[in-house]
Amino acid sequence: MLDSFHAQGFFIMGGFSLPGVGQQMLDEVIGVVREADESGITPAGMFIAPESQGNLSGTHPEDTVSKVFTLHDRPEFSSFLCDERIAGILRDLIGPDVDCFLSQFIFKNPGAWGQPWHQDSFYFPFDPPRPIVGLWLAVTEATMENGCLHILSGSHTEPVHEHVPDRRPNANQGYMEIVDHDMSDRQAVRMAPGDLLVFDSHLMHCSTDNVSEGIRAAMVFHCCAAGTVDLGFEQFDGFKSPLHRFNPLLRDGQLVG
Ligand SMILES: O=C(O)CCC(=O)C(=O)O
After folding, report:
1. Mutation choice for ligand 1 from 205, 215, 221, 222, CB with most ligand atoms inside 8 A
2. pTM of the prediction?
């Protein structure tokens, strides 16, 4: 696995979790969205991003949501990370002291557009800038039809490329894309519920549109070395993303909490 990570920028652990683990996350995040919809108040520190191309004919608040950010304080999500297998991966790829700094639940409702080609590090202006590792858990099946990820194997060796705003009119807020690289060697990453993709933050990846009738949900965590400093986006005058919350996960190689 480590060899694959260093050579290709990713590896997949099939059947990492029982499908019920993701289902529980989905139930929890639906609860969060419905409660916020009813009360008009989003829980402190969390952000519910609307889906520009969502299933607008849906009847539930979550039918028009793209992503819910900052879930890693909540037990249903932090318990996923408190797993010796996750600890082992992060110790090997990052070191003995690790924080989880970002979490997002991605609904990808029917009709939702994919996220264009990007490198996650574009969004993480950190010191040190790497290593940063993403953990992408398939909550539902991810297929060609419902908009699975596509990756460009080996592209983690590239520097962070220029990203320009997603050129599609009415694309989701914040979507940025790489347009100066040949992506023709792309590989589709089909996954079953409970499969886990572990990937480098320089790996170029995208996802395609959900043209199926059902959702394609995923839960994503991002981890970095403890002590990493968020320098903020220079282009936003040093604005530090409120989505980055650095929670200790490993200290001296041991899981915290
Ligand atoms: O799951 C998706 O559709 C896109 C996710 C992605 O590209 C990311 O989390 O960086």
Report:
1. 205
2. 0.95
